[in-house]
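Q: What does the assembled structure look like for these inputs?
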Amino acid sequence: MNPKAALPDAAQKFLRTHPAWFKLVRRPVFLAVSLVVVVAYALLMLPDRQAASPAWLYSSIGLFLLLVLGWSGNVLADKDKPEILKLAVSLALIAVLGWLFYRYSGAQWGRLVEFFFNWKKLKGNWWILRDGLGVTLMLALISAAGSILVGLAVAILRAYQSRTLDLFLKIYVDVFRSAPMIVIMVVLFFALPYVGISLGSILTTVVALSLGYGAYASESFRAGIESVHSGQIEAARSLGLSRWQTIRMIILPQATPVVIPPLTGNMVSMLKDTAVASLVAAPELLKRARELYTSKTNPTALVAAALIYLVVLIPLVRVVNLLEKRYNKGSQ
Amino acid sequence: MNATSTTDQMIEVVDLHKHFKDLHVLKGVNTSVTRSEVVAIMGPSGGGKSTFLRCLNRLEEPSSGHIFIEGVDIMAPYIDINKVRTEIGMVFQSFNLFPHLTALENVKLAPMHVRRISAQEATERGRALLEKVGLKDKAHAYPEKLSGGQQQRVAIARALAMQPQIMFFDEPTSALDPEMIGEVLDVMRAMAREGMTMLVVSHEMGFIREAADRVLFLADGQIVEEGTPAQIFGDSKQARTQDFLSKIL
Amino acid sequence: MADSRSTGSTPSRLADVRARMVHIPLIRRHQFVFSFLAVLVAYGLFLLPGGGTPGLLGWVAVIAFTLLCLAWAVILLTDELKPEFLKTIIVFVLLIVGGWLYYRYSTGRWSEMTHLFFNLTIIQKALPTLIRGFWTTLLMAASAAVMSTILGLLLAVFRSFGSPVLNLFIVAYVDFFRSMPIIVLMMVIYYALPFLNIRLSAIMSGILALGLNSSAYVSEIFRAGFLSIKKGQFDAAHALGLTPMQTMRLVLLPQAIRVVLPPLVGNYVASAKDTALASAISIIELLKAGLSQKSLLANPSPLIFSAVLYLVMFVPLTRMSGLLERKMKAGVRQVRL
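A:
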């Protein structure tokens, strides 16, 4: 097969009219010259932070960024260039980006420790954050169990194929998958008391998370149930197995590996959403961090909370990623 | 209704109709099958052969008509259809083995959980059956490791493990590569020799000529013609039958 | 005991099926169903306590009534022989009875329901703010989408160069912004950064947080898109002498975009939903508009209105993005065959 035929027309036409062009940008001379241009630009054209009007500021920085990215991309993408050079270019790129940020963000880096990592201010108050984390984890665990129960129940009920029931459940799933979680929590917390239901903030959070993520979970369970071929169900029934025996011994063992990756992904997202509960007065991590921020007028608590979230969530997100990859490999 | 526990009239079908939405697939089928009879069902695709077979154990719900299995009206309200299904073994075109279980576990599953025999007895029975279909050393293999012919033989062993009175075969060799058809047909021939009552939907002329006692030609939802293989293949009366046979013979 | 003969020697087990066939279970008989129904009606009319909050005995009576009604409904619903329309009627009757019980025994201000939740005069007063909130939501969603696409694409392209140094930073970036809850990010940007003299307006903070978070996902989506191009395309491009940069631009990207579009759309929809979080840093988007008007006018109608607006926007969007994903899966299967 003619490899040229694999390319889109535009590419073929371009190559026909510019046969030697592509080699130009790779020549060392060109690279050196363009590098000089970029450096000159940096020294001469980049404005001071305060000096220029915003439009000029943004466009010149933008142009500089384009030049830098283009130049380094050109070198990095060239498979003929030595690895050492590429390593140097990568480091230089990071350094330049860092320098740009340093120069133009206006940040007073000297104040970084005083305002972001001021552990002295938090002294004796770490227990508050610890309590908040405990509440966060507890909310996540209870809601995870709740959402699995809700999702499983909905999926099994939908498998029973009563058309009215299916319609109602479909509406539930559509509504709770489409509404933002914060809207669900806020409506449950602020509007329900008017119809005589006054759930506390913790209960509201658990109900909102269970119902909202239960909708996603039910879709995952449904996909798992449907991944078992109907022929097997027919074979099971024709052997005389009852509906429940078929579900227990044939469907569930095969649906479970299909269902675990999306379900764990769900639960990690739910852990992140517990932070939203701070808006309905649940005493979880974010809310307690904000209280500390207000009382100490120092954002160290917020930064500490953010770091705690990262420490907890990054490994979990990685694990979920691995599970998804393992399942995808298995199914192929 | 016959009150004795063994009867010679295994299957009786009276005026069976089946509709799929607007499609009238079965248009009044009448037939009966006696003990140890091997009945082959042939016909053009879309003629209703598979649907007919699947109605007999209610994998498809008949729209109207009566079906008697050993004298029991299986369309009666509140009937425990699972019990009826234990007396009918079914082998499918696409094997439908349970992929998460080994061959032996596939065979053991239903006897243990439906007939409630002990694990030991089920294992013994399972091994004996696998040996009978020629797969003694594949007892612990998973279906994905077995060839099509081997999978189908496991499926037959699985159905036989329930010690049914009747066996249904829905195009058992249609999904197999040619070199594997023979091994499955051998098993089926052995079963016919032992006197199993069998209903086979198939295109395998050789097998039908040899092993079938009766052939039903089903087209457009009705039995166009029926008779012994010699009668149907050699001396068919209906134009429709002759037309079909000329295309495949 | 190995039973090699499969017929005749084992007696048929249909004998007990035959025996059981004349026997219709008690709970399925018409007489039972109707008499049970009569008992329920009598119970409902005479034995239930009056309206308002009942005492302990009253609660027991109400709960027993509920359970009995549910049992009756379940008996009928699990009967395979009853027609579908009857089951539909029963579901509706159940809902109505449930609603009636709730109405009778809760302390809700029922007479005021419409006045509270669907008060048109109040909604009219709140409308200008609500509409402004709606446009803000739209603006934030669009800006975040643009920002995340550009950023995510750049990240994916530079990731594909395979430089270990860059990859380290990019992977750290992606891990960071996928794990950080958006609301925490918004608060850090809006409340904490000013202490370092980085002052962003509320809207900018919101857009920045949304964009950064979304860009992490977008870069992974594009990366998956790049990886989905078959190796043969790379070979063909190299054989022609195209630089990897050109290969990227002229060959990879157009094809990758087709693979990438469904999850990308899903990501945009999710990002648009996340704009509601900006209410936490006092941006007057749709949710905050509803909340503030609710406080201002002392009536929850504006909040209900914005919630409904969210549903109206996102139910179709979520369905459409789901359809796109399904079409993509179908497409992949065809390509494989």
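Chain C touches chain B through 24 residues (CB under 8 Å).
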